[in-house]
Structure formats: structure tokens, C-alpha cells
Amino acid sequence: AKKKIEEIKEDEYWNTILKTNSKEGYEEYLSKYPKGRYRKDAIAKIVEIENALWQEAVDKNVVEGYEFYINKFSNGSYVEDAKKKIEEIKEDEYWNTILKTNSKEGYEEYLSKYPKGRYRKDATELKDKIEREKEDKFWDKIRKEDTIEAYDKYLKEYEKGRYKELAILLKKKKDSFWKTKDFWLGFLGVSWAITSIICFFLGVYEGYRDHYDWWLIFRLPISIIEGIFVAALWPLSIIGIPLEIYQEGWHSYQWIFIWPILLGIVFGGIFSYFLNKKELDEEIEKEMRKIET
Questions:
Q1: First to last CA, the chain
Q2: Fewest C-beta in 10 Å: which of 122, 176, 218, 272?
Q3: Is 76 helix (H, G, I), strand (E, B) or coil?
Q4: Distance, CA of 151 to CA of 142 (rounded, Å)
Q5: What mean pLDDT value characterizes the chain?
Q6: Is the CB of residue 142 less than 8 Å from the CB of residue 162?
């Protein structure tokens, strides 16, 4: 009879719990009747309530819904998913705010806050796009100025910019031709060749004049060596030749050595201009194609 009374009381309590149909009610039943006849039903009801609450949170997909689920089921089956969803929603809201500002600083701020975020690729691309557009505008301004100073300004502002190599080439093209190695190669080459020829004929002339026939044998190699020295030491020649002409007068044959220097400058300049211009134009065109692709 005592057992029957206990069963009747449990049944009445269970029916009361069923009417409330709440997680707390079923947990209270399990606490009061840990080995009760409705134990499995109570556990199933708790799971049913949890699934329904989770589905409701998913359908609404708002932070408050997931937080409510976590508060109700702190050890529930979907707690980690709920936390992840909350973070995703917050990230989405933050990302939408960043998109409205559409600034380099905004995208950098997002990447700093969410280094592994779902929009990190978009943020990086949009940030690079803004930087690229800014650099393009600056470069257009530089190209309109088209001066050495303008290209220096760009290279200082964008040390690793997209137009770095092109700026260097265009600056080089604008630079004075006599600063190029091609000019000096042409100048020294022409000066040496003409000086060697002059030295040779002068040596031949002196040999015949002074009857040094043996001297003629060595005249050619000596002329070549003299040509090298005169061409290499052209600054001294520019000073020394006029000085000797001043002291000896125009009857001194030294004045003819002015011609190698003058012709060296002329031909060196021509050689430098055309060769250097052609090479630079080819390099510039190649670099422009590279930038476009």
C-alpha cells in the first residue's frame, strides 16, 4: 500500500510537471525522483525543449536569441555553435560598418581585430584597391609634371610603389646625357682614336724630319699608347694645350690636339643620345606593359 501511495504521488507530480512543460520543471522532477518511472521521459522532454529553443534561435538569427539559449542551456549541445554564431553576427555587423566608411584605415582596423576573419580577403583586396587608386592619382600628377624633381618626389613617397622602376627610367631619360656612361664611352673612344692617329702622323713627320728611320718602327704602338693617355687625361689636356699654345704661339702643333677632345664630346654626345634613348625607350615600354598586366 505504501508503494502504491508513492506511485500515485509521483503520477500526480508528473502530471503537474507536464502541464508546465518547462526545462526547470523536468529538472526538478529528476532531482526529486532520480530513479523515477518517468525519468527517461523527463530527459527526452528537456532535449525536446532544447532543440525547439535552438531552432527558434537559428530562425531569428540574432545575438539575443543565441544568448537566451546559452542562458537556458549553459551545458547544452549547441552552446559552442551558439557562441560561434554570436561572433559571426557581431563580425557581420562590424564588417557592414567598415564597408560604409570604405577607408584604408577602416579595413586595416578590421584586419587587426579579425586577423582570421571571414572577410579578411575582401578587406585586403579593398584596402589594396584604395592604396592603388591613391597611388595612381599621384602618379598621374607626377607624369603631368614630367620632371626629375617630380619623379624624385614619387620615389620618396612610394619606395616600393608599382611605378618605381618606371619612375627611375623616366628620370634617367630626363637626366643630362653627359652623366651617362654611354657618353663617356663614346667621348673616350673617339678621343683615343683621333689622338692616336694624330700622334702617329706627327711621329712619322718628326722621324722623317730628323732622319730617325728606326723611330718609325715603334711609332704605331707608341701612338696608340699616347692616344690612351691623352684621351684618359683629357682634363689636363684642356688646360695644358691652350697653355702651350699661349707660350709657343700658333706655330706649335699642339693645338691640333684640341680636335680629339671637341670631336669626342660631339660624337660622345651623339652616341650617348641615340643609343641611350633607344635602350631607355625599350625598357620604358617593357615596364609599362608589365604594369598593365
A1: 94
A2: 176
A3: coil
A4: 7
A5: 79
A6: no
